[in-house]
Amino acid sequence: MRSRFADTVLDTAGEQLPRFGGATFTLRFRLMRLTWVICWFVLAAWTPSPCNHWRVWLLRCFGARVHSTAVIRGSARIWWPANLAMGQHTSMGPGVLCYNVADVTLGDFSIVSQRAHLCTGTHDVDDKDFPLVSLPITIQANAWIAAEAFVGPGVLVGEGAVLGARAVAARALAPWTIYVGNPAKPIRRRRGGEFA
Amino acid sequence: MRSRFADTVLDTAGEQLPRFGGATFTLRFRLMRLTWVICWFVLAAWTPSPCNHWRVWLLRCFGARVHSTAVIRGSARIWWPANLAMGQHTSMGPGVLCYNVADVTLGDFSIVSQRAHLCTGTHDVDDKDFPLVSLPITIQANAWIAAEAFVGPGVLVGEGAVLGARAVAARALAPWTIYVGNPAKPIRRRRGGEFA
Amino acid sequence: MRSRFADTVLDTAGEQLPRFGGATFTLRFRLMRLTWVICWFVLAAWTPSPCNHWRVWLLRCFGARVHSTAVIRGSARIWWPANLAMGQHTSMGPGVLCYNVADVTLGDFSIVSQRAHLCTGTHDVDDKDFPLVSLPITIQANAWIAAEAFVGPGVLVGEGAVLGARAVAARALAPWTIYVGNPAKPIRRRRGGEFA
Predict the structure, then answer these.
(1) Which ranges constitute the DSSP H helices of chain A?
(2) Which of A111, A147, A167 is opposite residue B119, by nearest beta carbon?
(3) What residues in chain A have per-residue pLDDT under 50?
(4) Is B196 within the bounds of a domain?
(5) Averaged pLDDT score across all residues of chain B
(6) Nearest to C125 among B168, B178, B182 (CB)
(7) Per-residue pLDDT reduced to its tens digit, C78-120
(8) Contact A150/C165, CB-based, under 8 Å?
(9) What is the domain range of residue B64?
(10) Per-residue pLDDT tens for A61-105?
């Protein structure tokens, strides 16, 4: 399944398939994204932690739906702001890689810690043309993606779930449950469902 | 359990809890750390390998206890030098992330290879305020933390232990034993205990 | 087993063993490599995606055997070009770390995705002098090393094999098989052997 977003901007007319190193996206979209990357680099990437309102404003200019209480660090990298939604008191830490070819949604009070990777894109390994496949990532309220963890395409992180440091999630995570390891496995329930 | 260091500099007076995106540390400490980060960036981060004595001197100025034979690369990142102790002939490779909110201690001849992560901080997932928890990391003599491995809060790496590339240690590692995987599991004894 | 290349440039005359933080390679080789690192940094590291022919030309000047249809991104890091061979329509994505102390060979149509790590070097943990051990990595035709995966020294990635995101391969991967996890384990066959 491909996302509607990807269907719109994918370079389906081009003869250059990914298998042959061709561009996946249209020239128009690539120029738009280049503009975004340059804007973030020049205006936001180097800004210190307290300039958060400025970064939120910049993200909104490019179409992100970000609550005013959300926190995002300058060293975080958003692939495409229009595919990002962050609820109240959410947080995206230093060096987070948000590769949101499809939508990435952070529920209220959810936290993505330093250098975590939210990866919505993959390739269909069973298709000879190796096409891009992109699936949305949804992180529900009060969940915590710990340092350097990896969330794969299409993963639903349930309310209050914890993905431990360096853990790798390829499937849905159950609510109020702690997962560790690569691949991620549940180790125990989290006490705290009562304060959701 | 929180470390004594964290207790001293934690912003316990503030109303802004981590759960609400508030600062964890006092303003005074954050300014001190900003000074350190700027100093390392300007004076050391770009220096080539042979300028090691200069980097050791700079770390000592900020309170690190580093032996003169210790080796630390410019691209390594020390969160707070006063929480770092490195014994003789220890080594911290390129891109190492030493997130030492609590003490990090490297015993003689221990090696931390490129892009490894020594992470002393986590959060109490069972507390609704989600407070910072920091626990010291101790790496004993002759141990080797290989490339891109991860050592979590409170971990004791036993003498001569080896944590393989990309392995993730959340518990104590037995002496002269080789661990791989995420989570790290022992695979065999290391021959060499006799030369400790 | 050490590679022939490493035997040639290893600083075997020096008294400074790796265990004592000494340099592993000869001064002459280190200066040659410094030239390469500076050249890539000044001339290629910042170049956008479409300047691919320029980067391929630069790699060839330093001895890499790279097909003209190969794609390599500016943010990729090649340790030593003379140890690199890339076949037709191969690809090395953004942020790939190719630590090729020994040869790294990419077969036709093979893909190495963003921030993957091809690591040919390790240390002999059973030798008290802790010498560098380097073993070649061979990635056969149509294989895919996905984002942030890790391929260790001496690994042969079979034709059409897939190493999933963040997976860690320390042993040979069977052809047309999909591996995930750390350590990497096979999960199923890949459909597509027929289009090889």
Answers:
(1) 4-9, 27-43, 52-61
(2) A147
(3) 1-2, 13-17, 196
(4) no
(5) 89
(6) B178
(7) 999 999 999 999 999 999 999 999 999 999 999 999 999 999 9
(8) yes
(9) 4-178
(10) 999 999 999 999 999 999 999 999 999 999 999 999 999 999 999
At residue A175, φ and ψ (nearest 5 deg) are: -60, 150
Q: What is the ipTM of this complex?
A: 0.85
Q: Is residue A16 part of a domain?
A: no
B66 CA: distance to closest CA in chain C (Å): 14
Other CB atoms within 10 Å distance of the CB of residue A85: 18
In a domain? residue A2:
no
CA distance B136 to B79: 13
CATH of the domain at A120: 2.160.10.10
CA torsion angle C109 C115 C120 C121 (round to 10):
180
Q: Closest partner residue to A181 among B117, B122, B183, by Cβ?
A: B183
Query: What does residue B13 show for φ and ψ, rounded to 5 degrees?
Result: -75, -30
Q: To which residue do tokens 């702690």 refer?
A: A178
Identify the segments of chain B with pLDDT beneath 50.
1-2, 13-17, 196
Nearest CA in chain B to A191: B126
Residues B1, B109, C122, CA angle at the centre, nearest 5°? Answer: 100
A193 within a domain of the structure (yes/no): no
| Mutation choice for B interface testing from C126, C127, C135 by most B CBs within 10 A | C126
pLDDT given at position A128: 76
Domain count, chain C: 1
Please tell me chain A's helix, strand, coil percentages from 3-state DSSP, rounded to the nearest 5: 20, 25, 50
Q: Which of C49, C91, C98 is nearest to C76 (CA)?
A: C98
